[in-house]
Please model this.
Amino acid sequence: MNFTGIQNPEEFRVVTRAHIIAWRDDLLDRSLSSMSIRHRLSALSSLFEYLCEKNTVTHNPVKGVKRPAVESYEGKTPAIGDHQARELLDAPNDNSLKSKRDRAILATLLYHALRRDELCRLKVKDFKQERRGVPHLKVTGKGGKTRYIPLHPAANGLIHDYLDAAGHGHEENEALFRSVSNNRDKYSQQPITPDGIYKLVQRYSIKLGFRIGAHSLRATAATNALDHQADIAKVQEWLGHANIATTRIYDHRKTRPEDSPTFKVTY
Model:
């Protein structure tokens, strides 16, 4: 709206394909990544499709506008190795409330491939779900979509340890993972934030000699599951992806050096 000078919603009717192309070129000149520009064009196209459906505009001017090619459909988020994942799980190594919470958070991320926002939204009752006699996590993903993920036994035990120490396991409708300002603070009501999760993962990984964010744990979990013959369609559901093409971005198996044809060559 700023770019085209639109002041009110009715003026969307005057937007033409030329406006869209000029906006795309302006985004390119601002050195935005190809993926960011594609996302913005896609969002605008979705808006015009909605307006068409409501008979507010006559056509979608974004249709047919060439979108910049993405550099690669290979995920840029690095997946860590199995030994690094094990080291990360063991990194919070004392008996404090904070360490118990952090172990539970790292296990929940590494065993269930949750997004940061999804983990922060977990309530105590979401940890206590059961389906066909198997403990499950109830996860609220993008767009409010709910999925149920079987709870890994290792994560289950660590979450129980954390709740026993924190003392809020009976507060069904409150946040599962909460902020801890110091080792004695057992009564914080505030849920941990996505930024807090990011800093937590980064802090422990730096101590171990590598630097990653929380999203790397999602990529690691997906890669590990695929490495161990998990069906990619099941992994898609597990990750909460609408499109299997997105799941393939998380498949880092083809990037492993040991699988390169280089090491198949013998003379």
User: Anything to note?
Assistant: The domain at 1-71 is CATH 1.10.150.130 (DNA polymerase; domain 1). The longest strand covers residues 134-140. The chain is about 45% helix and 5% strand.
